[in-house]
Amino acid sequence: MSLRVLIVDDEPLAREKLRTLLANEADIEVLGECPDGARALEAIEAHAPDLVFLDVQMPEVDGFAVLDAIDPERMPAVVFVTAYDQYALKAFEVHALDYLLKPFDRGRFHSALDRARSEIARRADAAAAQRRLHALLDGLGRRRHDRLIVRESGRVYFVRADEIDWIESAGNYARIHVGGRSHLLRETMKALADRLDPAEFVRIHRGTIVRIDRIRRLESGPHGEYVVVLADATQLTSSRSYSEELQRLITGR
């Protein structure tokens, strides 16, 4: 696996030393060099490097300010490079992989690089495992009509279709009401309507789907709509365009 590396240091000689050391590594692609923190942020945003060799002391935007400004989900692996050892503790507090104290030799550099390789490989393995799990769960959810898969706060919930009272639109998401609780599902109402069994669920509005056996009664509205009263006394209003579905429930046809 090729590692994409960015060099950030305000000293030209320091950048040259890192570039020379990295040139001997077959698995390294140097994306570029930045002489200050502001341009480092632009490069990280544009190129999403795997690894950044980052100077601590730079004018205006120092190394710690660079890390503070990066979205945590886009955070590369970081090896700090500095001539001052007083920053070491803070470097590890912000989860830097290593701390190269200038002047460092080839052996110390390779030790930091190997540590970075191991960490980046671990992250890649973890991300791949997470993608496989999500693909498995998504596939399971698409194949099965009797349960939905909800991800919330790092947890995965399986919600059975027969537990659902009703569903409402929430932008590009759907909010599923189950008893006195609700869950936000990353799925559109159209996709849900296509998946759910039409013998068990009825869409009464563009933004509302109801489980049929939760309906206690229907009350006619003045303009052809219905007020749908559920077993828990929740009241939902149908739209005229979907009232035909409810009419079929009433007539049995």
Overview of this structure, please?
With 253 residues, this protein is an alpha/beta fold. It has two domains: 3-132, Response regulator (Rossmann fold, 3-Layer(aba) Sandwich), CATH 3.40.50; 144-251, LytTr DNA-binding domain (OB fold (Dihydrolipoamide Acetyltransferase, E2P), Beta Barrel), CATH 2.40.50.1020. It is built from seven helices and 15 strands. It has helices spanning 12-23, 37-47, 63-69, 88-93, 106-143, 189-195, 243-251, and strands at residues 3-8, 28-34, 51-55, 77-82, 98-101, 147-152, 155-160, 166-170, 173-178, 181-185, 201-205, 208-211, 215-220, 226-230, 235-237. A five-stranded parallel beta sheet has the order 2-1-3-4-5, sandwiched between helices. It has a five-stranded antiparallel beta sheet with strand order 10-9-8-12-11. A three-stranded antiparallel beta sheet has the order 13-14-15, with no helix packed on it. Helix 2 runs parallel beside helix 3. The longest helix is centred in the middle third of the chain and has 38 residues, at 106-143. The protein is rod-shaped, with a radius of gyration of 28 Å.
